[in-house]
Amino acid sequence: MSAREWIGKDFYRELGVSSDASQDEIKKAYRKLARENHPDANPGNTEAETKFKAVSEAYGVLSDPEKRKEYDDARRLFGSGGPGGFGFPGGGGTGAGGFDLGDIFGQAGASGGFGGLGDMLGNLFGRRGGGGTTAARGTRGADVETDVRIDFTEAVKGATLPLRLSSPATCGTCGGNGARPGTRPRTCPTCAGAGLVSRSQGAFAFSEPCPDCRGRGRIIDDPCPECAGEGISNRTRTLTVRIPPGVDDNQRIRLAGQGEPGRGGASAGDLYVRVHVNPDPVFGRSGNDLTITVPVEFSELALGTTLTVPTLDSKVSVKVPAGTSSGRVLRVRGKGIAKRDGTQGDLLVTLQVVVPAKVDGKAKAALEKYAEAVAKHDPRPEITALLRDRGA
Fold it and tell me: Which family does it belong to (predicted)?
């Protein structure tokens, strides 16, 4: 990130705090926003993921007193139309007589009080000082996504699974430096290892990637035969993935630093494991509640009964009051899916009357007597009234 881009960011606004907020207020705001926008809590939500990265970047600066002071000083200097109105309309990047941005960031002005400005901004941009040379900034590794399929019980209770991946990883032959074993990369003589070279255009000086080392700051004379000098090669590896209890179907689990390796010493990307849950023939789920449909006889609902119902690991007795209607849902507290805070959802038991396909013998005779006994009872009075009004 360039100095101009960095200064133009409002980290206080990202966290929703004022510029004089205390460290505790900054921490509290960050934790709230990070929790709300964490990728694990918002699977597939790119907007939340972008917000999570933004607040993390803001907190990384504002939580460090030294970085925060440097950030505030830089914004005061340039935000008020600093030297030449840098970064603001009308400034054009030059003062009355014009100046080179390389001078203001890399040198100390005798009268302007800019001594150490290059050091100040250099600390924040990952480099030290304006006159020294440093290694080029590396490139963070790409994120990787893979899929796993688990049983319903594993999703509810949690599981630990081996995950076999074939993906880019740090080259095992050269250890990631890209050079043949026994040799080492050498510092690029063109950019002195900085990875950047300066180019002047009128009153401005620009930095661009060094054409000889392609911005890496190093030259490999004898590339590694396995990775051809890239420091990265495809290999198969096995990871152990912990599936947390209560994971939802299609939810992503993030494994930090297990993605593609970074280049030039930068951090690796993340691995996202997308979980697919096989349906269970008996149980279902509604949030953190476990659901089950239990077939019952009409007599059990009419006269009342006590049912034995399975749970995930045992069984419970459920009392059905007399006169219970078909489709009623009975709740058994604490027999559902465990939540992350240690509490559990409930077991929801749906009662469903089963009608036999054929009735004969004593059962048929008993039903006929029952029908005679309740002949005067109308089970559908609203419909009967409507039909009567229509002359049926």
Answer: Belongs to the DnaJ family.
Task: Answer yes or no: are the C-beta atoms of 22 and 72 closer than 8 Å.
Answer: no
Nearest to 70 by CA among 128, 13, 141: 128
- Binding residues, by number, are 171, 174, 188, 191, 210, 213, 224, 227
pTM, two decimals, is: 0.49
Pairing of strands 271-277, 283-286: unpaired
SS3 state at 361: helix
Q: What is the pLDDT of residues 139-161, one digit of tens each?
A: 787 888 889 999 999 998 889 99
| Angle at CA of residue 182, ends 177 and 183, nearest 5° | 55
Residue ranges for the known binding site for Zn(2+) are 171, 174, 188, 191, 210, 213, 224, 227
Q: What number of CA atoms fall less than 13 Å from residue 30's CA on the CB side?
A: 20
Alpha helices for 114-198 (secondary structure H): 117-124, 152-157
Number of other residues whose CB lies within 10 A of the CB of residue 146: 16
pLDDT tens readout for residues 279-334: 999 999 998 899 999 999 998 999 999 999 999 889 999 999 999 999 999 999 99
Q: Residue 74: what pLDDT?
A: 76
Q: How far apart are CA 36 and CA 27, in angstroms?
A: 14
Per-residue pLDDT of 340-385, as tens digits, reads 677 789 999 999 999 888 888 888 888 888 888 888 888 888 888 8
**DSSP E strand stretches across 189-325:** 196-201, 204-209, 218-219, 232-243, 252-255, 271-277, 283-286, 289-296, 305-310, 315-320
CB 194, CB 217: distance < 8 Å:
yes
| 173-182 core/surface letters (b: 16 or more CB in 10 A; e: else) | ebebbbbbee
